[in-house]
Design a protein that fits this description.
Blueprint: E1 4-8, H1 12-23, E2 31-35, H2 38-47, E3 52-56, E4 58-59, E5 62-63, H3 65-74, E6 80-84, H4 89-97, E7 102-105, H5 113-144, E8 148-153, E9 158-161, H6 163-169, H7 173-176, H8 181-184, E10 186-189, H9 199-206, E11 216-219, E12 225-236, E13 242-251, H10 253-267, H11 277-294, E14 299-306, H12 308-315, H13 317-334, E15 340-345, E16 348-353, H14 359-374, E17 377-379, E18 382-384, E19 387-394, H15 402-418, E20 424-426, H16 429-450, E21 454-463, E22 469-480, E23 484-486, H17 488-497, H18 501-521, E24 528-532, H19 535-539, H20 543-554, E25 561-566, H21 567-572, H22 574-586, E26 590-596, H23 603-606, E27 613-616, H24 618-623, H25 633-644, E28 648-651, H26 657-665, E29 670-671, H27 682-692
Parallel strand pairs: 1-2, 1-3, 3-6, 6-7, 19-20, 22-24, 24-25, 25-26, 26-27, 27-28, 28-29
Antiparallel strand pairs: 4-5, 8-9, 8-13, 10-11, 11-12, 12-13, 14-16, 14-19, 15-16, 17-18, 21-22, 21-29, 22-23
Helix pairs in contact: 2-3, 12-13, 13-14, 16-17, 18-20
Bound molecules: ligand C2E and magnesium ion (MG) (2 copies).
Length: about 700
């Protein structure tokens, strides 16, 4: 489209010359309009559509720069060139200062440069307009974003701040302009508060983009600090020369606070605020790494509160929680600040003693902890007594990494518990062997029931005077396909711990009853069969009903059955035991106390149970060697006691004639032992019963 030029000039000659020059321009003609006065020119401009203005500074209604100013005011975005007579160059040059694009000298209008320069100024104006739009857009963008932007010149002096930068630094753009960036943006290290060199300086030095370095804190003009994340980039000019830098930064205080909080939550126990497993693992790893350098032997104390479950169940979880918190507090009091107390879950805590010099130091710490925890706690009006069992593992002997040290300390803790609680125990490598065997037995036990690998052997009990059989004791045997016969001592306690003793005990009772019926059916007079009952079986709520069902199913008469219970089983819950025994007793089942004399039971309690038989433990019988009367003192005392309580007394483990003679002499009625017979299988027992009966 042709460009439209408005010539404001009263001189017809000039106008004609320009018309000619512009109308015949080789690269396309201009449309030329004329206004001979300023007033008519201004009116025409206001109508719009003018691409360029040629303005004579000498007009009938205006003279000099005043005319230009008026034209420029209404046509701010239209290029204006003045037409300047000889001697008017001063004004023309001033007009350029005020916004004119240049001037044309009168007398040279027929020059073919006229259309060219006019076209140039029009094009330049269009470019400037576009540039303006781009700049405006950049300006708005910079002021709308949340990130702060500061730019500096080659000397590190601020030449621009966006609104976010003004807000964050506390400096207004005009005040900041020309000041050094280090004055506007004071930066210190997030960790130590040491001054940090502004990345802009590095950019100005190296001409390369700088990312943020570590955690940086900036202080604003009023000293308020915030964490920032920043980066800086160089600015190059047309020629690729470095002329300044732009720095962009944002306030990350909230993000950092949130991240810190999340990190804390991920690494700490919610209830006690102590480090959790995750953090503990880190600390153990750190401790083992530095142990190699500093020649220390870090130790782990694995703690489990004794009877915590009982407190939790009886007093409620709120009190249980308070207790855990109080325990955490006491543990912290027992160790140094360089040590780590962590909660491992439930009522388990792990203490890492980071820089012990000798393993004995761990023992001292453990003793301190035992005392601290066994001191009663006063919580919510309750006085609570607890204690803890501690297992100790020491680096590097007991493990080279966190996992091994923890596992071994845990194993040692179980041994401490077995030893009777409120005790500590160092890890020993043979504990692992035992743990492995235990594991092996447990997994095999599960299969053994399905595969019918169990069988019962029977050992006769005899009347010591007549040496006739008074009954038999059923003793469990595990015939493992690879290991052969496994004695009950190696698996009963494991079966008890993993709960398998319940189905196992039922199998034993059923098998013993079935056997009694078989013997009777084979023509043998009914014989008393004693069955051993473990603590867990006896405590199980269905025990009695199950026994009833078995009597019914097998057709065995309850009066044939004798239950052997140890003192500790009876004493655990005296009232419940007495009730249950009474029910069995009412059906005619006999009750024997096994291993009598080893359980420290109170005789007055024992008196409350409907007991028929006391079985003197083998260890007392073994002590009888005929050399001194006092070696059999306990045996004779038990015999005397049984007689006065009207209970039968059976001596277990009679192995020789000396023991037999002693027992007979002191009036022991019955006995059992290798001297008469080892436990034998059902067939051999039947043969013995047949002969004896
Ligand atoms: P216990 O009830 O005290 O059984 C007596 C143990 O002494 C038996 O060992 C028996 O073989 C052994 N014995 C008998 N006479 C002599 C002797 O003259 N000298 C020596 N040195 N030992 C003798 P066994 O069969 O290995 O049983 C060990 C323990 O395992 C039993 O002690 C009992 O507590 C438990 N047990 C056995 N069978 C069962 C069962 O079916 N259920 C439960 N819960 N426990 C059982
Ligand atoms: Mg027994
Ligand atoms: Mg016994």
């Amino acid at each position: 489209m042709a460009n439209r030029v408005l010539v404001i000039s009263p001189d017809p000659d000039d106008v004609r010359t320009l018309r000619q020059a512009l109308g015949s321009a080789s690269d396309g003609p201009f449309i030329v309009e004329n206004a001979s006065t300023l007033a008519s020119g201004l009116r025409r401009i206001e109508q719009g559509g003018v691409d360029a203005i040629l303005l004579d500074l000498t007009l009938p209604d205006s003279r000099g720069l005043a005319g230009f100013d008026q034209v420029h005011a209404v046509a701010r975005h239209t290029p204006v060139m003045t037409l300047c007579a000889l001697g008017e160059e001063q004004d023309a040059s001033e007009a350029v200062q005020r916004g004119a694009q240049g001037w044309l000298s009168k007398g040279y209008f027929d020059n073919n440069l006229v259309p060219q320069s006019l076209r140039n100024v029009i094009e330049r104006m269009k470019v400037e307009q576009k540039l303006y739009a781009v700049q405006a857009r950049a300006q708005i963008t910079l002021n709308s974003i949340g990130d702060a932007v500061i730019s500096v010149d080659m000397h590190g002096r601020v030449d621009y701040l966006n609104i976010a930068a003004e807000l964050m630094t506390g400096w207004k753009r005009d005040e900041a302009k020309g000041r050094r960036i280090s004055e506007i943006l004071v930066m210190v290290d997030g960790d130590g508060g040491a001054p940090v060199v502004n990345p802009v300086e590095a950019v100005l030095r190296d001409g390369q983009v700088e990312g943020l370095a570590g955690e940086v804190v900036m202080a604003d003009r009023h000293g308020k600090c915030r964490r920032i994340e920043d980066s800086a980039a160089p600015i190059f000019d047309w020629d690729g020369l470095l002329v300044g830098a732009v720095m962009v930064f944002r306030d990350v205080s909230d993000t950092v606070a949130l991240t810190t909080k999340m990190k804390h939550l991920a690494q700490h126990d919610f209830l006690t605020g102590l480090p959790n497993r995750v953090l503990l693992n880190d600390r153990i790893t750190q401790a083992t790494v530095s142990a190699k350098r500093s020649n220390t032997c870090p130790a782990l104390l694995f703690l489990d509160l004794d009877k915590f479950k009982h407190i939790n169940d009886s007093l409620g979880h709120a009190i249980g929680d308070h207790l855990l918190q109080a325990v955490a507090g006491r543990l912290l009091d027992c160790v140094r600040s360089s040590d780590t107390v962590s909660r491992h879950g439930g009522d388990e805590f792990v203490v890492l003693l980071a820089d012990e010099r000798r393993p004995q130091d761990a023992a001292l710490a453990a003793e301190k902890i035992l005392i601290a925890i066994s001191t009663p706690f006063l919580l919510d009006g309750h006085q609570l007594h607890t204690s803890t069992s501690i297992g100790i593992s020491v680096f590097p002997l007991d493990g080279l990494d966190a996992a091994a040290l923890l596992k071994n300390a845990d194993t040692a803790m179980y041994h401490a518990k077995e030893r009777g609680r409120n005790a500590y125990q160092f890890f020993r490598h043979d504990m692992n062997a035992r743990a492995v065997e235990r594991q092996l037995i447990e997994s095999n036990l599960r299969l053994a029931l399905e595969r019918s690998e169990f069988t019962l052997h029977y050992q006769p009990k005899l009347d010591l005077e007549s040496e006739t059989i008074t009954g038999v004791e059923a003793l469990l045997r595990w015939n493992h396909p690879e290991w052969g016969l496994v004695p009950p001592e190696r698996f009963i306690h494991i079966a008890e711990e993993c709960g398998l003793v319940i189905p196992l005990g039922r199998w034993v009772l059923r098998e013993a009853c079935t056997q009694a019926v078989r013997w009777r059916d084979s023509g043998i007079a009914p014989v008393s069969i004693a069955v051993n009952v473990s603590a867990m079986e006896f405590r199980h709520r269905d025990y009695f009903d199950h026994a009833l069902a078995i009597f019914k199913a097998t057709g065995a008469d309850p009066v044939w059955l004798q239950l052997e219970l140890t003192e500790s089983v009876l004493m655990r819950d005296v009232a419940a035991s007495a009730g249950l025994l009474a029910k069995f007793k009412a059906m005619g089942v006999q009750i024997a106390v096994d291993d009598f004399g080893t359980g420290y039971s109170s005789l007055s309690y024992l008196n409350q149970f409907p007991i028929d038989v006391l079985k003197i433990d083998q260890s007392f019988v073994r002590a009888i060697d005929g050399s001194a009367e006092r070696n059999g003192a306990i045996v004779s005392a038990v015999i005397g006691m049984g007689r006065s309580l009207h209970q039968r007394v059976i001596a277990e483990g009679i192995e020789n004639a000396v023991q037999l003679a002693f027992l007979k002499l002191h009036g022991c009625g019955e006995g059992q032992g290798y001297f008469f017979s080892k436990p034998v299988d059902a067939d051999r027992m039947r043969a013995m019963l047949h002969a004896g009966g």
